[in-house]
Amino acid sequence: MIKLRALKMLMAERKLDTQRQLAEACGLRTPHLNRILNAKHGITTPTINRLCAGLRCQPGEILEYIPDEE
Fold this sequence. Notes:
Layout: E1 2-4, H1 7-13, H2 19-26, H3 30-37, H4 45-55, E2 63-65
Antiparallel strand pairs: 1-2
Helix pairs in contact: 2-4
């Protein structure tokens, strides 16, 4: 499973205090971002691209692979 990680830390570094500010910086709708952050919706490559552009980071700074439990 791929999970978002360190997002709150990057948001703080970029002076983005709310999900709404993050959504605006990344060109995403706030409800869509909320579903992604709460793992209720998968994340696509274009969304990863928008997050990286908005946060000025590399994908590895926000994504983490966690093996599925067997």
